[in-house]
């Protein structure tokens, strides 16, 4: 059993996620390019569902950060991140994304593969908490699995995803086990629903950053 909400134990997460998620590293590069395009200078950054700290790794290599806050509901994941980044400008909080209670604190908030584990009302509460925690003109960037618009599309995308995992060395059984988590362990919504959610939570603009296979990046400006 995993020691966090994802499919993988914290000790093997970084290795396993690349065998599972196409273009995993590209997601993070897209975040960096977007934040740079928004002309932010020194940043206060909150990464929700930080896992082992992949977002921080990319940020510290590419940007100047006044403060970077790691947030995760798994103490095991947070412990790994804390060991990796013992810097003076970092802090670590153990809580669920729905429980974040900052107000006008951060320039950037990221949630990479986090909110698709939530049900509809939980997801709305999570996005609202991120909106509340942003400064005016702050950016919220979320990458999630999304639901195709049709059953046919869903079948094709899931087959394609299975083939990717098998090419990365997973067995057919391992690949099927992960595919079968769809609508059982995580609950994707359509891209249209993603954009509507951002608008309904108060963001004055919501846009698509990146789409590939069954993953989408959405960003909003407060």
UniProtKB/TrEMBL annotation:
One of its GO terms (biological process) is methylation. GO terms for molecular function: methyltransferase activity. Residues 46-138 form the Methyltransferase domain. Keywords: Methyltransferase, Transferase. This is Class I SAM-dependent methyltransferase. The lineage of its organism: Bacteria, Bacillati, Bacillota, Clostridia, Lachnospirales.
């Amino acid at each position: 059993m995993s020691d966090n909400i994802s499919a993988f134990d914290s000790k093997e997460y970084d290795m396993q996620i690349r065998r599972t998620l196409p273009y995993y590293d590209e997601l993070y590069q897209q975040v960096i390019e977007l934040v740079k395009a928004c002309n932010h200078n020194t940043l206060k950054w909150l990464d929700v569902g930080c896992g082992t700290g992949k977002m921080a790794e990319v940020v510290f290599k590419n940007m100047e950060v006044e403060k970077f806050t790691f947030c995760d509901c798994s103490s095991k994941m947070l412990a790994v991140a804390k060991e990796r980044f013992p810097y003076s400008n970092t802090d670590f909080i153990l809580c669920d994304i729905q429980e974040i209670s900052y107000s006008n604190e951060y320039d950037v908030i990221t949630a990479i593969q986090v909110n698709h584990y939530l049900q509809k009302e939980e997801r709305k509460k999570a996005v609202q908490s991120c909106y509340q925690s942003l400064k005016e003109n702050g950016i919220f960037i979320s990458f999630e699995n999304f639901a195709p618009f049709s059953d046919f599309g869903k079948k094709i995308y899931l087959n394609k995803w299975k083939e990717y995992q098998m090419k990365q060395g997973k067995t057919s059984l391992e690949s099927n086990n992960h595919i079968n988590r769809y609508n059982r362990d995580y609950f994707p919504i359509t891209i249209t629903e993603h954009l509507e959610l951002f608008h309904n939570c108060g963001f004055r603009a919501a846009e698509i950053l990146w789409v590939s296979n069954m993953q989408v990046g959405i960003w909003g400006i407060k």
